[in-house]
C-alpha cells in the first residue's frame, strides 16, 4: 500500500530530464539568480489538492521545493495530519511551444526509484501541475502540452489529476 501511495504521490508532483533545452529555459538565470519555470517553493492544500489524491489516499496538503540545482523535495500530509514519506530526486524542465505550458520529467530516488513525466504552467504565484509515473510502467499515459491540462490517460481522468499550488515565499 505504501508503494501505491508513493506512486500516486508522484501523480501530484516530481524531477530529471536530459534534453536539448536552451540553458536559460532549464536552469537558474545566473546573471540575476532568478528562478526559472517551476523552481521555487510551492504549497497545495484542501481544495487545491488533485481530487485523485484526495479520493484514493486522503492527501490533505503537499509542500514542494524545486531547487535551482535541479533537485526537489516533496512532503505530503494526509487528512489526519500524518506526514507521509518524503519524496526526493532530480528534475528537468523544458518550455514547450504550446502557450505557457512547460514539460517536466522527474527522476525520484527516494523513497523508491521511479520516473514521472508531465506538464506544468505558472502564472503569477499559481502553479498548475499534472504528472504521471512512466517508469516502471503502470499503464498511465502522460499529459502533453498539446492536449493541455486534463490530458492524463488521453483525457480519461479529466481534472482528477490536476494539482494547483501556490507560491511560498
Structure report:
This protein has 169 residues and is mainly β. It has one domain (2-168): Beta Barrel (Lipocalin), CATH 2.40.128. Helices cover 13% and strands 39% of the residues. The chain has helices at 2-12, 23-26, 51-57; strands at 40-45, 59-66, 71-78, 87-95, 102-110, 114-123, 126-135, 163-168. It has an eight-stranded antiparallel barrel. It starts with a helix and ends with a strand.
Mean pLDDT: 85
CATH architectural designation: Beta Barrel
Per DSSP E runs of 2 or more residues, the count of β-strands stands at: 8
Helix percentage:
10-25%
The major β-sheet equals: 8 strands, antiparallel, barrel
Q: Which properties best describe this structure?
A:
169 residues, Lipocalin, 13% helix, mainly beta, 39% strand, single chain, disordered N terminus, 8 strands
Which helices and strands appear, and what pairs or packs with what?
Elements: H1 2-12, H2 23-26, E1 40-45, H3 51-57, E2 59-66, E3 71-78, E4 87-95, E5 102-110, E6 114-123, E7 126-135, E8 163-168
Antiparallel strand pairs: 1-2, 1-8, 2-3, 3-4, 4-5, 5-6, 6-7, 7-8
Short description:
The protein has helices at residues 2-12, 23-26, 51-57; strands at residues 40-45, 59-66, 71-78, 87-95, 102-110, 114-123, 126-135, 163-168. It is mainly beta.
Amino acid at each position: 500500500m505504501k508503494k501505491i501511495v508513493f506512486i500516486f504521490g508522484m501523480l501530484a508532483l516530481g524531477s530529471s530530464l536530459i534534453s536539448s533545452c536552451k540553458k536559460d529555459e532549464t536552469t537558474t538565470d545566473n546573471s540575476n539568480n532568478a528562478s526559472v519555470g517551476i523552481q521555487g517553493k510551492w504549497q497545495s492544500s484542501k481544495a487545491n489538492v488533485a481530487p485523485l489524491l484526495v479520493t484514493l489516499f486522503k492527501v490533505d496538503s503537499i509542500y514542494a521545493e524545486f531547487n535551482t540545482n535541479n533537485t526537489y523535495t516533496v512532503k505530503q500530509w494526509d487528512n489526519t495530519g500524518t506526514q507521509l514519506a518524503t519524496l526526493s530526486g532530480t528534475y528537468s524542465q523544458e518550455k514547450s511551444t504550446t502557450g505557457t505550458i512547460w514539460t517536466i520529467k522527474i527522476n525520484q530516488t527516494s523513497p523508491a526509484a521511479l520516473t514521472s513525466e508531465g506538464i506544468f504552467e505558472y502564472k503569477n504565484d499559481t502553479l498548475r501541475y499534472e504528472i504521471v509515473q512512466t517508469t516502471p510502467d503502470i499503464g498511465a499515459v502522460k499529459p502533453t502540452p498539446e492536449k493541455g491540462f486534463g490530458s492524463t490517460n488521453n483525457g480519461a481522468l479529466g481534472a482528477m489529476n490536476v494539482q494547483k499550488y501556490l507560491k511560498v515565499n
